[in-house]
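Side project, low priority. Logging it here so it doesn't get lost.
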Amino acid sequence: MSFSSSCPSQRPALALSRAPRVEPLAARTASCGEKVRQQGLAELYAAMAWRRTLVLLCGSACLLASLLLDVATGPALLPVRDVARSIFGTAQDASVDAIVWSIRLQTALVALVVGAALGLSGAMMQTILNNPLASSYTLGVSAGAGFGAALVIVLGVSLPVPEAYAIPLMAFLFACLACAGVYGIGATRDSSPEMLLLAGIALLFLFQALLALLQFVASPEALQQIVFWLFGSLQKASWGKFWIIAAVLVACMPVLAADAWRLTALKLGDERARGLGVDVRRLRLRSFFLISALTGVAVAFVGTIGFVGLVAPHIARMLVGEDQRSFLPASALYGALLLSVASIASKTALPGAIVPIGIVTSLVGVPFFIWLIMRNRRAFW
């Protein structure tokens, strides 16, 4: 007897087992909705990435235009076309070539790298402390550098280096000391952002008091030199100083690129960052080291310059958001642009005179920062 005739009940079961399984309508609808949502998120992310790229490209174009205009302005106004030809090696006038390469270009480039260093250090400071008012200027790092420079001017501390570099070296060391002090005091309470911020404010007042004491006991000549250094100036820029600042800036870039994701996670809070595997304490320590290097080398050569490290990160945050992969480059870019524009304003504000650039950044930065706050009703922080 055949199998089919002896077991007639098996045939429907076999046919039923081979029948295609039909998914419920709700499951198919949920699957389609998830695909649509993922596609929408992908399109949104692509649009945001394109917007960030466009912001960086526009900022770079403005920076190039500002560089050319900065080189062109001065006691003898040069045509922008001749300046561009001189920079790109096609100059037809030897006098223009001499003015550009011997005097003005090095000053304009120092303004760019100093602005980039201050903007980058301010962005890192605001990220690791989670505070919109944090910057190297407001947390005592610049004040520490100013005290170190004044110490050399007043007491004549002898260092085994040329005199032109004695003041920058001491300013750099005291800027690093101020950063180390902020982190050392904050580490007593597990390096919390609040404790680090309070430590920075305390050191700010300490260095300001010590600086006032040095000004009180200084001779009239030393006092004048201290005041001029504290104003901030680009007039003593040189190619050697430019290459030093640029080298420190370039050396910090790989570390920042490696820590971009960790810094973005830190914006979620310390606990969530730890939950994502971020060593928060080590990240803050590494960031403070980079901040001290960037701020110290910038302030050491040009003096105290305020509001660039505060305003530039806010502009970058409004344009590209909090993703550190775009936020950090944008902060450096717009910090360089701000200081370059301030350099132009310092040479054109008073005919026949060059206003110290630290005064210009404060006069322009304060109302501009207030305008940013009042203009934008939604919170960017």
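Brief comment: The two ends are 84 Å apart (CA to CA).
Revisit when time allows.
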